[in-house]
Amino acid sequence: MPRGRATGLTCFTTSHGGFGGGHRAIRGAVEGAADRRVTFAPRRGGFGLARENDMQRYQLEPEFEPRHAWTRGEFHLLEAADPATTAHLVIDMQNGFLREGALLETPPARAVVPQINAISQAVRGAGGMVAFTRFAYDPNERAWDAFYRNFLNPDRSARQREAFGPEAHDLQLWDGLDVAAEDLVVDKTRFSAFIMGTCDLHEILQERGIRTLIISGTMTNCCCDSTARDAMQYGYDVVFAADATGTVSEIEQQSTLLNMALLFAEVATAEDIVAAFQG
Question: Which InterPro entries match (predicted)?
Fold first, then answer.
């Protein structure tokens, strides 16, 4: 795919519901950055509850634009991606995060299912790979006991282990996802899918010659973030799908996208990703 040049570094939110609020996408490059301004649509309840039809529009704060321009320059990873060596990683889109009333329910993740499916279809149709991770609890693996024993309160710990244990309903992928027979489904017992000994993803990607990863899914600031950071440091080119990721609050989504854009990934919209693989 030929390299392209986009102008303007713009972020926007998709609809966001549940006990957080807000998505953004960062798109384009940095020409004309000095003319950009931060704008917000009216918001309800600060960082509290937001309804699913709430829409907030956001642009990268001017104070970060020069640093982004100096660090990254123009975007190019997406335009240069080879479908044959690209994988779309759909992170933890499971019943335990999307089901109403689930222990870790993340309502914004339900809202981004159409964007995730569109990316999967585009990448798959161009000859790329699609892989789904599942956050799992393995009772036979004791190496992460400190998290369940010390970080979580006892009630939350017990409920989370049960929710994501072997064969649990909440462990399963959400029914609304477009999952093809040839797609990969891999379990992980850490936030990142690249912790050796806890997930086989890296070895599989290497065997298939994958070089570019497109990250979507939930939670933006936890498993998506952790996976993207580690992937970049393992040498993958990482594209972070801003409006195909979801988490529970505005500030968590915004902070993650900023960190991704400045340090770890090219941040793009689902529309731009689909266009790149259909062009």
Answer: Isochorismatase-like_dom, Isochorismatase-like_hydrls, Isochorismatase-like_sf
Kindly tell me if the per-residue pLDDT of 5 is higher than 80.
no
60 contact partners, CB below 8 Å, separation of at least 6:
9, 10, 11, 26, 36, 38, 68, 258, 261
> Under a CB-based contact definition with an 8 Å cutoff, are residues 87 and 126 in contact?
no
The count of residues in the chain is 279
Closest CA to 33 of 14, 12, 6: 6
For the cut 70, the answer to whether the pLDDT of residue 63 exceeds it is: yes
- H helix intervals, the chain: 65-72, 77-80, 95-98, 107-111, 113-125, 145-146, 154-163, 201-207, 225-233, 250-259, 270-278
**Does residue 21 have a pLDDT over 50?**
no
For 78-136, how does the pLDDT look when each residue is reduced to its tens digit (9 = 90+)? 989 999 999 999 999 999 999 999 999 999 999 999 999 999 999 999 999 999 999 99
How far are the Cα atoms of 78, 130, 131, 141, 239 from residue 127, in angstroms, in the given order? 15, 10, 13, 36, 17
Q: Are 235 and 262 in contact (CB under 8 A)?
A: no
CA distance 93 to 134: 7
Domains (ranges, CATH) in the chain? 75-278 (3.40.50.850)
CA neighbor of 265 nearest in space, from 219, 209, 224, 204: 224
* Helix boundaries (H) for 13-106: 65-72, 77-80, 95-98
pTM: 0.80
For 232-269, give the DSSP string.
HHTT-EEEEEEEEEE-S-HHHHHHHHHHIIIII-EEE-
Render pLDDT for 239-268 as a digit per residue (tens, 0 to 9): 999 999 999 998 999 899 999 988 999 999
What span, in angstroms and rounded, lies between the C-alpha atoms of 181 and 19?
34
Residue of 262, 263, 243 lying closest to 253 (CA atoms): 243
